[in-house]
Design goal:
The structure holds 2 protein chains of 2 kinds.
Chain A (H helix, E strand, L loop, with lengths): L11 E12 L2 E12 L3 E5 L6 H8 L7 E6 L2 E3 L4 H6 L2 E4 L11 H7 L7 H15 L14 H14 L4 E5 L7 H16 L3 E6 L2 H7 L2 E6 L2 E6 L6 H9 L17 E10 L9 E9 L3 E5 L6 H9 L10 E3 L2 E2 L5 H6 L2 E4 L14 H9 L6 E2 L2 E2 L1 H14 L16 H13 L5 E5 L7 H16 L3 E5 L3 H7 L2 E6 L2 E2 L3 E2 L5 H8 L13
Parallel strand pairs in A: 3-8, 3-9, 6-7, 7-8, 13-20, 13-21, 16-19, 19-20
Antiparallel strand pairs in A: 1-2, 1-4, 4-5, 9-10, 11-12, 11-14, 14-15, 17-18, 21-22, 21-23
Helix pairs in contact in A: 3-4, 4-5, 8-16, 11-12, 13-14
Chain B lengths: L2 E5 L5 H25 L4 H14 L1 H26 L7 H18 L9 H27 L3 H21 L34 H18 L1 H11 L1 H7 L3 H28 L10 H11 L4 H25 L4 H22 E5 L7
Antiparallel strand pairs in B: 1-2
Helix pairs in contact in B: 1-2, 1-13, 2-12, 3-7, 3-8, 3-10, 3-11, 3-12, 4-5, 4-6, 4-10, 4-11, 5-6, 5-10, 7-8, 7-12, 8-9, 11-12, 11-13, 12-13
The chains are: A alpha/beta, B mainly alpha.
GO molecular function, one term (chain A): ATP binding
Keywords (chain A): ATP-binding, Nucleotide-binding
Pfam families (chain A): ABC_tran (PF00005)
Chain lengths: ~525, ~350
């Protein structure tokens, strides 16, 4: 392809036309189209699992589409790998950085470049780029000493040194402070002023409306709309993002609520950098007999919340978590289980279950201190086996062989096992993270029903989920987690998808954000 | 063309059992080639190495005597390795146990202290080895240092410490300046089990330890927490098991059993403290643990097999003038073969087509 003169750029620089990508039964992208023009900042909006990452990976050669095509300056093109897209001027800054902590900035940048440029010359080029775009990066500092925002700027500089015409930023502000975000926006404006195109992936509605010229909205792997975000309201964008189907009938509580089983009071947990975001002033009360849902986009503190509730992380203040009237902030998992709390983590293999241990041994994981199965430190295998058989039978766990390793079960069957393991411990409080993630529809319905029955029996249930439909279907109240804060939970009957979507995007309108207008 | 290892989803049970046997056969083939290269008739060498020791009543006893420390140390290492903690320093813990236990034998030397001395020495040996083993555990828990490196380095510290003691403060004044302690009194010596040979009560202790370890690892919550911590650390934390406690526990057991082996050896076949009290038992026991599939009974059998390489090596030294290093080569080949067989059973080798055709 011949180089176009700089002033005659075609209308669209990079265009995806009806791209489709399947992973097994899941259609991650279903005929998705998107066109990025030179000189514009284009937003790609959608919830978790809407297909944003898949689309980006196909646009830079990390994934190959099953059908559909890419156009570069109007002509069809195939990127067999990321190197070929980079050669065409498509640069990507991913959410997870690929930097070596032990090396300096300039060394890290050098690793990604072809040829052997002297480090001092490269450092001068980095300085140049830094000044031109106001990126504040010091070439000779070690990456290990840098903040997350600085690391992101290193990744951006690395991309810019390749003189890209299209720059793709994957959720760039999710790790930034407000100040750092402002700086990034200024950089983005400078880049588009030069005629470059920026694809800005986000679910934060306010910043998309501020920064972007156009926005493409995906939902459930499909193209929903292309809009001018400045002409939309945060509310209308949220509606596009989460869908605006007819409101379903919320379930009616047929039983009286009992006493509080879980109290969270002014819970603050500092973030630990790499993994686990901070919790800020979280408050929540769950009473016997109700199911409370926590909605929110992944990475806003849900994992930390689960770990601090299960006792894997401890709270400084004993009183900040109260389980069944006993202050439990400093108690470990075993002590909390002794208070008849049950926990089901998001990650089935490696967290909820040991992949290479037999299923019957995995029963022991959460039942070892309940009394019946372990006596005086000795495992009573007959009792353990009876419990195992009971879980398998009552929760319809299907597998091959008599007692296979946990990793050999399908996702749905393993989840039924993990849920059954907790339910048969007869808990007064169950905390479930992503109850039906990656589980087939029949198993998902079974799991929701089980939790509903437990609530009817007087158990308090907390469900953390990114699946809004699920939460609307079977919880009584919903709160939203965003950037480590939790909104006041609102009865499902009094809220709407739109209100929840707004709160998930962090739109500020006070603590009552989840209430419908 | 690049190759890649891919995990096999369904590992056949037969493969896991057969892997150590295949490794043994492979080691024998390598041995045959080595003997031929040394100018020996491989069949005759095998006979001297592996058959004749089994036929003679004296060497039959020696086999058990040599297997005893391997069993004790190997079973202890199984605790560590099951928990995914790599204690490579059992040799040092063995020396530490021997030194601490011997202190009592030397302190009571010539005092006619009574029959409590030997049991107390064994207890001190266990404690000494356990304390030495807790050093790498502490360094790992507190500073995150690799226990592989620290435990190995502590071997040399222990050996040099022993060297200092038997050349200095603990040297036998009537010993013609040889670097060794006085010979222990009778009440500080392991009782023999027969009139001929050197078979001593240590083997009873070793068998009891094997039975106890089988029970602890297979039937108790402690065994489960060790296994779970090694297999899925995050699941273990979720189950409420404290990773630090498990680390300290397995190093204490492993170091303690190595220390016990050390004091039994010194109070048994050797009879006094000298600079070289081990032909590398602490390292050979690593092979016993792996060959025995980290199962105490398996380790018992594997210890007998490895003891045979020691005895056969001695016989080959005498009758065929072969260097003792041949034994080391055998043991090393066996370890590599076991590890390779394990990988080949659990993984499949795939050719990877070149992906970049841009």
């Amino acid at each position: 392809m011949t180089e176009n003169p700089p002033n005659a750029l075609p209308a669209s620089l990079l265009e995806a036309v009806a791209l489709t990508k399947r992973f097994g039964a899941l259609v991650a992208n279903d005929h998705v189209s998107l066109a990025i023009r030179a000189g514009e900042t284009h937003a790609l909006l959608g919830e978790n699992g809407a297909g944003k990452s898949t689309l980006v990976k196909m646009m830079c050669g990390l994934l190959q589409p099953d059908s559909g095509e890419l156009l570069y300056e109007g002509a069809p093109i195939v990127f067999p790998d990321p190197a070929s897209s980079r050669a065409r001027g498509v640069g990507v800054v991913f959410q997870h950085f690929a930097l070596f902590d032990a090396l300096t900035v300039v060394e890290n940048v050098a690793l990604g470049l072809p040829g052997h440029e002297p480090l001092s010359a490269l450092a001068a080029r980095i300085d140049d780029c830094v000044h031109r775009y106001g990126l504040a990066v010091e070439p000779w500092r070690r990456v290990g000493e840098l903040s997350v925002g600085e690391r992101q700027r290193v990744e951006i500089v690395r991309c810019l040194l390749g003189d890209p015409r299209v720059l793709i930023l994957d959720e760039p502000t999710s790790v930034l402070t407000p100040d750092e975000s402002e700086n990034l926006f200024r950089t983005v404006d400078l880049l588009t002023d030069e005629g470059r195109a920026v694809l800005f992936i986000s679910h934060k509605l306010d910043e998309v409306r501020r920064l972007c010229h156009r926005a493409t909205v995906l939902r459930g792997g499909r193209f929903i709309a292309e809009v001018d975000p400045k002409a939309e309201t945060a509310g209308s964008l949220a509606r596009l993002m989460v869908g605006a189907e007819v409101p379903r009938l919320p379930r009616v509580l047929e039983h009286e609520l009992g006493e509080p089983r879980l109290l969270i009071r002014n819970l603050n947990i500092p973030g630990d950098g790499s993994r686990g975001s901070a919790l800020r002033d979280v408050n929540l009360e769950i009473r016997a007999g109700e199911i409370v849902g926590i909605a929110g986009v992944a990475g806003n503190g849900q994992t930390t919340l689960f770990e601090v509730l299960s006792g894997e992380k401890l709270a400084d203040d004993q009183e900040s978590i109260v389980i069944d009237r006993v202050p439990a902030g400093g108690l470990g998992p075993t002590e909390r289980r002794a208070l008849r709390a049950g926990f089901v983590p998001e990650e089935r293999l490696g967290h909820a279950a040991a992949p290479d241990m037999r299923l019957s041994d995995n029963v022991l994981l959460t039942t070892h201190s309940d009394g019946a199965i372990v006596k005086l430190g000795v495992v009573r295998h007959s009792v353990l086996n009876a419990r195992f058989q009971e879980i398998v039978k009552r929760f319809d766990v299907r597998f091959g062989g008599r007692d296979p390793k946990a990793r050999r079960l399908s996702g749905g069957n393993l989840q039924k096992f993990v849920i059954g393991r907790e339910v048969l411990r007869d808990p007064v409080l169950i905390i479930v993270d992503q109850p039906t993630w990656g589980v087939d529809a029949a198993a998902a319905a079974f799991i929701r029903n089980t939790l509903r029955e437990k609530a009817a029996e007087g158990c308090a249930v907390l469900v953390i989920s990114q699946d809004l439909d699920e939460l609307l279907e079977f919880t009584d109240r919903i709160a939203v987690m965003c950037e480590g804060r939790l909104t006041v939970p609102v009865p499902v009957a009094e809220t709407s998808r739109e209100a929840i979507g707004l709160a998930m995007g962090g739109a500020e309108d006070g603590g009552e954000g989840v209430h419908a207008a | 063309m690049p190759l890649r290892l891919e995990r096999q989803e369904n590992v056949p049970a037969i493969g896991l059992v057969a892997a150590p046997l295949v490794a043994l056969v492979f080691t024998l083939v390598v041995g045959a080639v080595m003997f031929a290269a040394l100018g020996q008739d491989p069949l005759r060498a095998f006979s001297v190495y592996f058959i004749e020791p089994l036929l003679d009543p004296y060497t039959q006893q020696e086999l058990v005597v040599k297997a005893c420390p391997l069993m004790l140390i190997g079973v202890g290492l199984a605790f560590c390795y099951r928990a995914n903690r790599w204690n490579i320093g059992a040799e040092g813990q063995y020396v530490a146990g021997a030194v601490v236990g011997s202190w009592l034998a030397l302190a009571t030397h010539g005092t006619d202290a009574g029959p409590w001395v030997l049991p107390a020495m064994l207890a001190l040996g266990f404690v000494g080895g356990a304390l030495w083993g807790l050093i790498p555990a502490f360094l790992r828990v507190r500073f995150g240092s690799s226990e592989i490196l620290t435990s190995l380095m502590l071997v040399y510290v222990a050996q040099l410490g022993l060297d200092y003691l038997v050349r200095g403060p603990w040297k036998d004044p009537q010993g013609f300046n040889f670097p060794q302690s006085v010979t222990f009194d009778d009440n500080a010596i392991m009782p023999l089990l027969s009139d001929e040979g050197r078979l001593h009560a240590g083997i009873i202790i070793a068998v009891v330890v094997v039975i106890a370890a089988t029970f602890v690892l297979g039937r108790t919550l402690i065994g489960f927490s060790i296994e779970l911590g090694g297999s899925a650390p995050r699941a273990a934390a979720f189950a409420g098991f404290d990773e630090r406690r498990v680390t300290y526990g397995v190093f204490a057991v492993s170091g303690g059993l190595a220390g016990l082996a050390g004091i039994i050896e010194v109070a048994g076949p050797i009879g006094n403290l000298q600079p070289s009290i081990s032909p590398g038992y602490g390292f050979t026991a690593i092979i016993a643990a792996m060959l025995g599939r980290l199962h105490p009974v398996g380790i018992l059998v594997a210890s007998l097999v490895l003891a045979l390489t020691y005895i056969g090596g001695e016989a080959a030294q005498i009758t065929m003038r072969m260097p003792f290093d041949v034994t080391r080569v055998f043991q090393g080949t066996l370890l590599i073969a076991i590890l390779a067989a394990d990988v080949l059973v659990r993984y499949r080798i795939r050719r990877v087509e070149g992906t970049s055709h841009a």
